[in-house]
Amino acid sequence: MPAAPLEISGLCAGYGPTRIIEDISFAVKAGGRLAVLGRNGMGKTTLLATLMGLTTRHGGRIGIGDEDITSRRTSARAERGIGYVPQTRDIFPSLTVEENLRTGLKERPPSALDEAYAMFPRLRERRGNYGKQLSGGEQQMLSMARTLLGKPSILLLDEPLEGLAPVICDELMALLTRLAAGGEVTIILVEQQIERALDFADSVMVMERGRISWTGAPDALRSDRALVDRLVGVGIH
Ligand SMILES: Nc1ncnc2c1ncn2[C@@H]1O[C@H](COP(=O)(O)OP(=O)(O)O)[C@@H](O)[C@H]1O
Ligand SMILES: [Mg+2]
Q1: What crossing angle do the helices spanning 166-181 and 136-149 adopt, rounded to 10°?
Q2: With a 6 A CB cut-off, is 42 part of the ligand 1 pocket?
C-alpha cells in the first residue's frame, strides 16, 4: 500500500464519559511527517489511541483521504494500513523475538522476516531470545519492526525514543528518516526529544490540555526558544 493521507476534524474523545481531547483538527498529506509535541498529560497518547479506535469517541471525523474510517473497529483500521507502536511497547514477553515478529506478518510469507532483520540487525542476533530478555532499546526495535512488517501506510509512533541510549536514538531516527524518504508511509511521531523530532518532521503540532495550541513548521519552533519554553516547557534538548 502506498502512503495515505490522514484527515481529522473536530475530534473529541476520552475514556468513558471523561473527555480528554477536544476539537482536534489537522491533516497530514500522504508521505508527510508530523511531530506532535507537548508536556506530559496533555493528551498526545490519547490522540494516537483515538486514531486507532482504542478510546471513547465523543465526536468528530477520522478520514484516510475521502474514506471515512470513524466508525471502524481497531482491527479494521489496522487492516486498512494504520500501524501503531504504543508508548508501552506491546511485545509478548514470553515469545521469542522471531515469534513476536511472526505475529506482525499478517498475510505475508515468513520470508518477509528478513526485511525486519535487515532493518534491525540486532534483532537477528537475538531472534531466539524471549521478549522479556531484551533491553529497552531492543524491545522498542521489536515493537517497531513487528508493526513495520504489516507494511502500514500510516504509522503512529508514541515516544519511540523514551528511555533509549543516544546512539540507539540516532539509529532509530535514521531509520525513520529513510522510511519517510521512501514515500511509502505517512508518519505521526509523538516525541519528547524535541530537537530530534524537529529534525525529522515537516510539520509540527503542539498540544495543551487536550487541544492543539500551536501548529507550524519545525524551523519556526527551532528558532524561537521562548516559544518552545511557553509551549512545551522543557526547552530544546
Ligand atoms: N486509561 C485512562 N483512563 C482515564 N484517564 C486517562 C487514561 N489514560 C490517560 N488518562 C488521562 O488523560 C490525560 C492525557 O493523558 P495522555 O494522553 O496519556 O497524555 P500524554 O501522552 O500527552 O502524556 C491525562 O490527564 C491522563 O491522566
Ligand atoms: Mg503519552
Answers
A1: 10
A2: yes
- Return the biggest CA–CA distance within the chain: 51
Q: Which amino acid is at 146?
A: R
The ligand 1 atom at the shortest distance from the C-alpha of residue 87 is 21
Contact 87, 191 (CB under 8 A): no
Over the chain (237 residues), the average pLDDT of each successive run of 10 is 92 97 97 96 97 98 95 95 92 96 92 93 96 93 94 96 90 92 94 95 96 95 85 62
- For β-strands 33-37 and 186-190, DSSP reports them as parallel
With H, G, I as helix, E, B as strand and everything else as coil, classify residue 8. strand
Q: Does 43 contact ligand 1 (Cβ within 6 A)?
A: yes
pTM of the model: 0.94
- Fold for 6-87+154-231, please state it: Rossmann fold (3.40.50)
Give the HSE-up count for residue 129: Cα atoms under 13 Å, Cβ half-sphere.
Answer: 14
Report residue 224 as a C-alpha cell.
524561537
